[in-house]
């Protein structure tokens, strides 16, 4: 009994610290996500407020992953439509039967300095959850029906500034009346009013979100737009990016496709 007592205490302490560490990391990521939207002025340019309850990871081809707000990418990196993973926060617990609506917009269209209305790049509703338990609880977002608005890869016009391509995830399915305009032959992706759509669709505050910066003046985008081709990557990596990569790796992102 005397032999097992200290080991039991150490084991309990270890798991207690591990749980606290996971909570701290998760809260840090959610806090950084909130701050990123505010510092970039997506709040209030696009949203009145942003208080994420979960972490949205966006996977592009070539193992390029948007893990935190404001990651810099080139338009070439994002040509193919991405896949999506969701990590629920401790305050945003999920039911496997939950469904979601996903929106991707460019609020800086056509010019960052003088936008005339957001451009809609993706709209999907009725997304289901494909649950995974190892090594931590995470979900793939699965589309069982056709997208309401198919993926349109970012393609900013040259020298129109930095575009903040923004992904927002909402709990629930958009109402039938709210999606009818997107099925009309006269539908135009430009001039998308996010606030009006979410209000008409009956969607509450966004559950999770992320955004990437694409600089229309970066060499990769200018070369691609001139049809000369480029294999260079426009991503920049700083110490924060590295630390977030390590944290999300602990969440199990490296185990999922």
Automatic annotation (TrEMBL):
Residues 1-20 form the signal peptide. The keyword Signal applies. Keywords: Signal. InterPro entries: PEBP, PEBP-like_sf, PEBP_euk. This is Uncharacterized protein.
């Amino acid at each position: 009994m005397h032999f097992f007592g200290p080991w039991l205490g150490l084991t309990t302490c270890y798991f207690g610290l591990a749980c606290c560490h996971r909570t701290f990391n998760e809260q840090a990521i959610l806090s950084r996500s909130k701050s990123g939207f505010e510092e970039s002025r997506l709040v209030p340019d696009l949203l009145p407020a942003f208080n994420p309850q979960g972490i949205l990871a966006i996977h592009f081809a070539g193992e390029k992953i948007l893990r935190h707000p404001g990651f810099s990418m080139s338009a070439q990196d994002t040509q193919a439509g991405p896949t999506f993973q969701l990590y629920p926060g401790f305050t945003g617990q999920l039911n496997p039967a939950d469904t979601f609506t996903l929106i991707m917009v460019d609020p800086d269209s056509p010019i960052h300095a003088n936008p005339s209305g957001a451009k809609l790049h993706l709209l999907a509703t009725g997304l289901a959850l494909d649950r995974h338990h190892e090594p931590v609880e995470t979900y793939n977002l699965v589309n069982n029906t056709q997208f309401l608005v198919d993926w349109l890869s970012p393609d900013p016009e040259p020298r129109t500034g930095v575009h903040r391509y923004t992904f927002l995830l909402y709990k629930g399915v958009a109402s039938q009346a709210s999606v009818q305009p997107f099925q009309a032959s006269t539908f135009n992706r430009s001039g998308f009013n996010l606030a009006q759509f979410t209000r008409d669709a009956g969607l509450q505050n966004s559950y999770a979100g992320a955004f990437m910066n694409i600089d229309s003046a970066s060499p990769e985008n200018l070369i691609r737009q001139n049809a000369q081709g480029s294999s260079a990557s426009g991503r920049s990596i700083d110490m924060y990016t590295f630390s977030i990569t390590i944290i999300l790796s602990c969440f199990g992102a490296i185990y999922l496709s």
